[in-house]
Write the structure tokens for this entry.
Amino acid sequence: MKKALKCWEIKKCDCAVKATCDVYNEEMNALKPDPSVVNCWDYLECPESKRNLCEAYIERQGQECWKLTSTRCNDNEILEFNEKMRLCRKCGFFNKHANRHI
Ligand code: SF4
Ligand code: SF4
């Protein structure tokens, strides 16, 4: 049977739109986390003082941290989405795991 296209596939939404879309994020969050993938804070040995301020840790989204805008990787500074994605594209964690979903 042919797979039905998702609305973001039909509209060809870019990453910035998907990251702020409730429909997209709810569907992605419902996917069972992959037990073979570590969380960003473990992979990068993120200190507790930093992770406790970070949305990825607070929301337990450490397997898809690049989708969140309020992460603290950049010396605790909150970046605009496009700036943040420039940082993520250089990140070892992103380059190892992001192609599972995008
Ligand atoms: S997104 Fe960055 S700052 Fe946040 S928990 Fe992961 S590694 Fe730490
Ligand atoms: S730089 Fe991006 S991909 Fe890497 S840990 Fe931080 S939020 Fe995640």
